[in-house]
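Example 275.
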Amino acid sequence: MKLKDKVALVTGAGSGIGRAIAQLFAEEGARVIANDVREEAAKETVAAISSGGCAIQADVADSAQVRAMFAQIEREFGTLDVLVNNAGIGTAGSSGANRDRIRERSDARMAEMLSGQGIQTHWDITQEMSDEAWHRMIAVHLNGTFFCTREALKLMSRRNQGAIINMSSVAALMGLDTVPHYSAAKAGILGFTRAVAREMGSRKIRVNAICPGFIDTPMTQPISPMMRAATVARTPLGRWAEPVEVARTALFLASDDSAFFTGQWLSPNGGLFIG
Ligand code: NAP
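Predicted structure in complex with NAP:
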């Protein structure tokens, strides 16, 4: 019971890694608030938690919705001990057309690479990216992390305690060629993590980040079997991970086991990135 009676908000908890974190935190005694942009998804997560929990629908990219969510948390719980800024959107772009294009190009590039003739199919992701795709990626990941952190700090500062965990990615550490906007947003999250960790140290509020490698979730479903095989081949442990393996890292950073950690990132990535 590493989180006994702690109040923990997990954003994007309706799926994948966020759902696994919500479930593990509840098993460790936390009172879990599951946020998601889809109300049904958040409710499904809460229904899967035997000790119950609270589902709150909100788009973390919308500061008014985030303020309303925290007002509800203050009314119903009066405090917040842990915030996990996990909500995120797919790396393959916002539209199915983008996803299909990336998939086609990745398979073509892989075949060309294997043939030894050199790569003729270019990614050209950045030059084709719309303003909308760029802005939405930054809005959900970076703005969302800021909006939720800003409100959480107001609650945590009252008791001068708390743990904030920001979901970054190996994309922040190494750059991923198909997702410049995602890589930029996730790298921004690391800078934000370090700055707020320094700022909040005197209040004993710890701020850390997680940089997962490839994890099997609905977000990574669109990745083609060929690309998947290529990422596995680049991973020393030779596999992708399950969401619960990231959840265990979040549990460490949320609990007193990491009492002397702040401003750090941990990367469950199977060796894909060794820094
Ligand atoms: P996921 O299965 O797609 O779960 C993300 C959840 O966040 C979804 O339920 C999604 O709803 C929700 N969401 C999206 N936009 C939101 C918003 N504006 N406000 C509130 N909720 C929102 O993805 P995941 O793989 O678990 O990813 C979780 C986090 O880990 C993300 O930050 C992701 O970037 C990061 N990450 C994932 C991997 C990986 O390999 N899977 C690797 C590194 C980092 P919708 O389904 O409606 O969009």
